[in-house]
Amino acid sequence: MESFLDYVDYVGANLFPEQTPKDNRSKLFVIDDASDKEQFTKEHIPGAVNIE
After folding, report:
1. Which of 1, 11, 16, 38 has the smallest count of CB within 10 Å of its CB?
2. Of 4 and 39, more confident
3. pTM to 2 decimals?
4. Given pLDDT bands bounded at 50, 70 and 90, which one contains residue 13?
5. What contacts 24+ positions apart, CB below 8 Å, involve 13-21?
6. pLDDT band for position 10 (50/70/90)?
7. Gap between the Cα atoms of 1 and 18, Å rounded
């Protein structure tokens, strides 16, 4: 996560599954997924919440 924060601005950016700690995702933060429902159903980061 620190490597992600090294280059991202604090306004926002995309976060990819490879950039998150797999074992503690749901304990560290909430992942909001803005994909449409069809795409979210097809594929999403485990524990993500769809906010379409």
Report:
1. 11
2. 39
3. 0.50
4. low
5. 17/45, 20/45
6. low
7. 10
Confidence check: pLDDT of 51 > 70: yes
Residue with tokens 């950039």: 19
Contact 37, 52 (CB under 8 A): yes
**DSSP track, the chain:** -HHHHHH--SS-----GGGS-GGGHHHH---EE-S-HHHHHH---TT-EE--
In angstroms, the Cα distances linking 44 to 9, 11, 18, 33, 37 are 24, 23, 12, 8, 10
Q: Which of 36, 38, 37, 31 is nearest to 16 (CA)?
A: 31
